[in-house]
Amino acid sequence: MKKIEKLVGGRKELSKSKPLIFMYNDLEKIADSYVNKKIPTYMALWLGKACNLRCGYCATDSVHIEGLEPKNNKNDLKPEQVKDLIKQFAVMGGETININGHGEPLLDKNLFDYIELMSKKNINLVITTNGTLIDEEVAKFFCKNKVAVNIKLHSLEEKIHNKLVGADKLGINAFEKTYNGLKNLIDAGYSKMIKENDHSVVTPISIQTLMLKEVIQYIPDILRFDRENNFYPALDELVIDGRADSPYWRSQIISEKENKEIAEKFEEIMRYKAEQAAMDQCPMSLGLFFDSTGRLLVDEYNFCCDAIAKHSEYKFPEKNLANIWRGLSQARQCKKTTFDESAMKKVEKYNDGEHIPMCYGMAKTQINHQSSLKK
Q1: Contact 304/282 with Cβ under 8 angstroms?
Q2: DSSP character at residue 274
């Protein structure tokens, strides 16, 4: 099988013992602003379900399109409404927006306008993408606007990655396109954006890799590739939802023992402890998360897409961002949650200090898996 080569963007002069930190993902800073300044410092936003791949593990059940002109969902926010949301976020003191989930953001023809607006408003931007559409022009634009990029790459083995993202059935080589996307970012100047401070190495590129039984043997190769090129290693748990809600994908969930083994291999290769990398710490639990229709998905008590806010008043633009935030503040004072206490007790067992901590959504995946094994 063809393997990806080391990229020229590796900065060997940087420390190999300091933790790699993903740019704009400073959890301590985000938490401080969230708790002390009482502002929504972080916001995640879905732009639509259109995608040029067909990942079998997709938890949002994105819609594959043949061309690059996806049809707009009539319920999605209009471009001017998205811009208004960005402006309101900036006025409230927001610092970082993460465009992720649902589909492939580079298929949205308005994305560049949103990025330019965020840049003018001094808002940091993180984009999660499969990387296949990052050509030279896109890479230069991202670099100019200091966009942090989270790219999905699940194996350095071409055949395996293509299978996981459904590229083999589509007759395309997504692996090669993603590699070219990474190379275009490096050539555009992303390696120069990597900075070293007293405590860590801050990088603008993150590699998101699913921890699956099918790829577990290849994870060390991915980690070495991340370390050599100073890419943040975002090891991710499988969420059982959407297309992933099937017996096959449930069988791909790694065990606690395998999780621990990955953490040990992480520390051996990355040369710092897994907990320093905050492998499963999700800043979305410290801010706001809107789907493409303007519906609020995540706040402090509604973790990781699993516990959707059921209150109709938490929807943009029916209510402006300030009113939504005020409503959430009142909910927090009441200490109400959208999930029961018995579920939370089950979650706590996965945060016992013996293995990588999980958010509610990640732990719920493990609970669902264990329940299915007993049936």
Answers
A1: yes
A2: G
Question: How much is the pLDDT for 305?
Answer: 36
Phi first, then psi: what are they for 8, rounded to 5°?
Answer: -70, -5
- pTM for this structure? 0.82
Nearest CA to 152 among 71, 204, 208, 102? 208
Residue positions counted in the chain:
375
Q: Locate 123 and state its tokens.
A: 């808002």
Q: What's the start-to-end Cα distance of the chain, in Å?
A: 38
Phi, psi of 202 (to 5 degrees): -95, 125
Token pair belonging to 347:
């979650």
Q: Which residues of the chain have pLDDT under 70?
A: 1-13, 26-38, 64-72, 101, 274-286, 298-313, 328-375
Distance CA 286, CA 96 (A): 12
**What pLDDT shows up at residue 49?**
83
> Tokens 């023809």 label which residue?
109
Nearest partner of 204 among 212, 193, 215, 219, judged by Cα: 193
- The pLDDT value recorded for residue 220 is 95
- Distance CA(30)–CA(96), nearest Å, equals 9
* pLDDT at residue 65, as a whole number: 66
CB 102 within 8 A of CB 62: yes
Residue pLDDT, tens place only, 326-342? 776 655 544 334 444 44
Catalogue all structural domains in the chain, each as residue range(s) with its CATH number: 20-374 (3.20.20.70)
Question: Which one-letter DSSP state was computed for residue 3?
Answer: B
Q: Which helix (H) or strand (E) holds 42?
A: strand 42-45
Q: Please state, as a whole number, how many other Cβ atoms lie within 10 Å of the Cβ of residue 69.
A: 9
